[in-house]
Specification:
The chain is of the alpha/beta class. Helices cover 28% and strands 24% of the residues. Helix 3 packs across helix 4 (88-98) and helix 6 packs parallel to helix 7. The structure holds S-adenosyl-L-homocysteine.
Amino acid sequence: MKGSLTIVGLGPGAAELVTPAVTDALKHSTDIVGYSKYIDRVRHARGKSFHPSDNREEIDRAELSINLALRGKKVVVVSSGDPGVFAMASAIFEVVDKRSISKEDLPIVVLPGITALLAASARLGAPIGHDFCVINLSDNLKSWDIIKSRVIAAAKADFVIAFYNPRSKSRENQLAEIYNILRENCNSDRLVIYANSVSTKSEAIFETTLSKADASLVSMKTLVIIGSSSTKKIRNTGYIYTPRYSGLEKN
Ligand code: SAH
């Protein structure tokens, strides 16, 4: 039997935000591979072999998935949110590239999921209605200098900026440094939003400004959004949006 490899995103947390295509792929799988916390979200599926692993073992997990699929298994690799956003899809293609695995030997399908930024944005209103950029603040796989230079460039370009992986136990003080860099490079009345565990039972969303933003309130479960100079809050309703126009008069 020919195996297959499907890389899927489980969305931000809520069951109803898992796409029907992902549900279908899980249903037809024999083996499910992923970080143990994400595997827990699909453990109710019957008759599957589960392969949970630690968060940092992405390349080992990619090798395992590919080897299982080459042995004829129908493998689904699960990520949270979207599998292409700071998640497993890149790790798998890295291994496919290194091992020169052909499409004939192993067809690969990537099924999108709702990434944390889209889920958070929908809760708030329309904060990414104009140009935005996304930066992963983890320095596990890139240098802290690269991160800082990208933050400065994004601030100078007046993007709305979303920070994934903003803070962890091993990186407790870096976000405060990022806030100082932002304060030097853009106006400190910019809106700052902390979107925690969006679409789960512990969802909590807070909003402040760059001048008051306290990095110690942020965790691994937070997505941080920094508004651009035109991002605003509608008084009375509290919706936050970024207008679609910039540098032009509204008509
Ligand atoms: N592939 C995932 C991102 C993985 S990186 C996606 O597309 O969403 C992990 C980071 O994503 C976390 O540190 C946090 O910043 C963000 N994140 C993931 N799920 C989230 C959620 N439900 N609410 C808020 N942020 C979330």
